Amino acid sequence: MNPIIALIEKENFRKTIPAFDIGDTVDVHVKIIEGDKERVQVYTGTVISRKGSGTRSAFTVRRIVQGEGVERVFPLHSPKIVDVVVKKHGRVRRAKLYYLRGRVGKGTKVKEKAWEKETVAGGAGVPAKTPEPATPGPAPAKA
């Protein structure tokens, strides 16, 4: 690799990568520059793909706006990405959710992970129903 490109990639490398996966509903906080003003715009949608590795990794977020599907690809290590906040964790069995492009209405919904619902109910990241630890019973009698 070219050392100049490696140097540029190294300085733009994000230290903490937000923990999200395919199927999650996320809020992507994007820095928008209009003239001399700077503001943060929130883009909410479902993550339908992740690709690449290192500083070149990207993820695609899809949402429905006025009945039309809109997809946007975000570079993960871009300085314009301020934050990625996970609103819901989706339960999916695919690496890419391109099948959502052909669906409309309620068909575009992704099921939520069952344990995540309990976590939200329990608050503070602790599941609402924690399994009881197995207590050893009386020792079996030897014959």
TL;DR?
With 143 residues, the chain is mainly beta. The protein has 2 helices and 5 strands, in the order αβββββα. Helix content is 13%, strand content 34%.
Morphology: extended
What's the alpha carbon Rg, rounded to whole Å? 21 Å
Q: How many H/I helices?
A: 2
Report the CATH topology name: SH3 type barrels
Coarse structural class: mainly beta
CATH architecture: Roll
Strand content of the residues, in percent?
25-35%
Stretches with pLDDT under 50, minimum 5 residues = none
Kindly state the percentage of residues in helix. 10-25%
- Give a quick account of the main beta sheet: strands, pairing sense, barrel closure: 5 strands, antiparallel
Average predicted local confidence, pLDDT: 83
The ordered string of helix (H) and strand (E) elements is HEEEEEH
How many distinct domains?
Answer: 1
SSE blueprint and pairings:
Layout: H1 3-12, E1 25-34, E2 37-51, E3 58-65, E4 68-75, E5 81-88, H2 114-122
Antiparallel strand pairs: 1-2, 1-5, 2-3, 3-4
Structural features:
single chain, 34% strand, mainly beta, SH3 type barrels, five-stranded antiparallel sheet, 143 residues
Structure write-up:
The protein has helices spanning 3-12, 114-122; strands at residues 25-34, 37-51, 58-65, 68-75, 81-88. The protein is mainly β and 143 residues long. The chain has a five-stranded antiparallel sheet with strand order 4-3-2-1-5, with no helix packed on it. Helices cover 13% and strands 34% of the residues. The chain has a single domain, classed as SH3 type barrels. The longest helix is centred in the N-terminal third of the chain and has 10 residues, at 3-12. It is built from two helices and five strands, in the order αβββββα.
